[in-house]
Write a structure and sequence with these properties.
The mean pLDDT is about 95. The protein has a seven-stranded mixed β-sheet, with helices on both faces. The protein is about 50% helix and about 15% strand. The longest helix is centred in the N-terminal third of the chain and has 29 residues. Helix 3 links the parallel strand 2 and strand 3. It has two domains: about 90 residues; about 240 residues, Spore Coat Polysaccharide Biosynthesis Protein SpsA, Chain A. It is globular and about 80 Å long. It has about 375 residues and is of the alpha/beta class. It is built from 13 helices and ten strands. The structure holds guanosine-5'-diphosphate-alpha-D-mannose and manganese (II) ion.
């Protein structure tokens, strides 16, 4: 039996990078930026013409509630239009939208129907052709805004010309929200706000993603070859020198699926990985603050999970081939720590990211299958 091998040393170094980078980053960005003032001059009464786009694919169960939720928003009805863009739903979604529109003649709703499903980004780009608002709000059918002031609170930021895009924080809801999902969101939300205060966050949410329409036009619409239309577009806007932010008081509720939770998260991780990869290929030159945020987030999503994987692989080698005592102790410690929720959440996320990178080689999941919510 060996007490300590070279493999153990390398594994420990990799594990230190794996766990150290996100911990240091989290504390750095939180302490340095989270409580900083925004330094943005906003006019809370700013109410420009806005276009709300709701993409739908088989949302019959949720679409009416979604439209009601938008209808209840405290925003002048004569300054907003809704575009529901449906891609060949087979559950009668467009019919329900038409019926809803007839019952609510005081709101301007435009239903656009694609006869073939080519994915969310295609649908959004089609909707953009009809959009007339200065500001475009994209919102998923399976999400709700709990606050009647959500739209106003999101749009007011655009009264400052430095703001190019705004998104929300997410509250998971559903019959079966797991502890893992909740504790993942806690860290995640802190990061989004702190990164926004630094300059911009590269991660946006489809539950509420708001953009200046002229910037979307400059970009030629949403990207059709990757899944994370929201995050990628926000990042491009940040690279154009505008801020892409998530304010601390803007919330959306998202229904967490009751079944296939892990596949759902894997698919979303796949999309985010695609977004980071596509941005890296651009070889753009971001501002200093955004360079750090983007660089570390890209590292954490693309490479860091593999450090853990290799560390674990080396420890197993050290245990099996060299009978290392340290390796046994470290592996046991790693397993024991799984009883702590935060650690379990972290490890789960790493597994999801690894499976997502591998799966990206097989399919980009641009027209993904619907999960039960
Ligand atoms: N028109 C249209 N066409 N809408 C679609 C299509 C499509 O092919 N596919 C999905 N949608 C709609 C859904 O009906 C829903 O309103 C919204 O797009 C989001 O779809 P979900 O199935 O709820 O996806 P998600 O919430 O798990 O995905 C999240 O992450 C994606 C990136 O990974 C959302 O935030 C998405 O907006 C985001 O693009
Ligand atoms: Mn969703």
């Amino acid at each position: 039996m060996n007490t300590f091998t070279l493999l153990d040393t390398i594994a420990l170094a990799l594990a230190a990078i794996h766990f150290g980078t996100p911990l240091i980053y989290y504390h750095y960005i939180k302490n340095r930026y989270l409580n900083k003032p925004w330094d943005i001059k906003i006019n809370s009464d700013y109410k420009p013409m806005i276009t709300i786009i709701v993409p739908t694919y088989n949302e019959a169960k949720l679409i009416e509630k979604k439209l009601d939720n938008i209808y209840e928003q405290n925003y002048p009805r004569n300054r907003l239009e809704i575009i529901v863009v449906d891609s060949a739903s087979t559950d009668g979604t467009p019919k329900l939208v038409k019926k809803w529109a007839e019952k609510h003649p005081d709101i301007n709703l435009n239903l656009v129907v694609e006869d073939e499903r080519r994915g969310k980004a295609y649908a959004l780009n089609l909707a953009l052709k009809y959009a007339t608002g200065k500001i475009v709000v994209v919102t998923d059918a399976d999400s709700l805004w709990p606050d009647r002031e959500t739209l106003r609170k999101a749009v007011k930021w655009f009264s400052d010309s430095s703001i190019g895009a705004v998104s929300c924080l997410k509250k998971p809801v559903g019959s079966e929200v797991r502890g893992v999902e909740k504790s993942y969101r806690r860290y995640y939300n802190v990061l989004r706000v702190a990164e926004s205060k630094a300059f911009a966050t590269p991660i946006f949410h489809g539950e509420l993603a708001v953009f200046r329409r002229n910037l979307l036009e400059k970009l030629g619409g949403f990207p059709k070859d990757i899944g994370a239309d929201d995050s990628y577009t926000a990042t491009r806007i940040a690279l154009m020198g505008y801020r892409a932010i998530v304010p601390e008081d803007l919330w959306a509720e998202e229904l967490v699926p009751s079944k296939s939770y892990f596949w759902w998260r894997i698919r979303r991780a796949q999309h985010l990985i695609q977004s980071f990869m596509k941005v890296i290929m651009l070889k753009a030159k971001p501002s200093k603050e955004f360079k750090i945020v983007f660089g570390i987030e890209a590292f954490l999503h693309l490479l860091n999970p593999w450090f853990l994987f290799i560390a674990l692989f080396l420890l197993n080698m050290s245990l099996l081939v060299m009978n290392s005592l340290t390796a046994i102790l470290l592996i046991s410690l790693g397993l024991m720590l799984l009883s702590i929720e935060q650690y379990r959440t972290w490890i789960t996320t790493q597994l999801i990211l690894m499976v997502a990178s591998v799966r990206n080689m097989l399919s980009k999941e641009l027209a993904w299958s619907k999960v039960q919510k």
